[in-house]
Write a structure and sequence with these properties.
Length: 246
Amino acid sequence: MTTQVALVGGTGKLGGIIHAVVDELDGFEVARILTSSSSLSELDGADLVIDASTPQVSIDVVRHAAEQGINVLVATSGWSAERIALIRSLVDAAGTGAVFIPNFSLGSVLGSALAAAAAPFFDSAEIVEAHRESKVDSPSGTAVRTAELIAAARSDLGPVRAPHADQRARGQQVGSVPIHSLRRPGVIAKQDVILAGPGESLTFTHDTVEPALAYAPGIRLAVPFARDAVGVIVGLESMIDIGIRS
């Protein structure tokens, strides 16, 4: 039986990539495409909702899907742990699944996992992320997720050292980790996680140069996973064995 997918934000850049990948998956079909201004009732009757809309619309999409008993795969940025907590009880009560993917790139997931694994060995950690100027939210969902993983890895050690964090130019802190966001032409998506200690520093860099190629493997993993998921699940690391769990 074919899984009928409702794709929100299917006319955008990421939505177009997701649409192309879903079309190639056996047993899946994009049955309807919604824009951010579409009525949420158009989701009704779908077997799986994939959300690639905007941060403002996304929370309503997730809530509506749960209320209708439909699993949802969230590819929209802007979902921090605090925001996910707002809908966790609704998803659990509905007995559905909500899978949040800050980044479909396997390289990005590995880079964040490696940074989190190294974080307990360094007192200082900062993130610099860059995206094209059209990205409407900052910091990026990937940077937020990376900072949350670093904070979790250091839970027994306490927050990272971030001097002068009261100054706006020091970035936005997530889990005590300062994040600096660049929005400029000529870049697609790049993230540097800079760890530092006495006499040395260690930098993990991930650079997306071709989104369609970089995201396709992660999308192929996430779509079938989301269809069968139960509860709230965050990150591709939940689907591949790299030693990090949400």
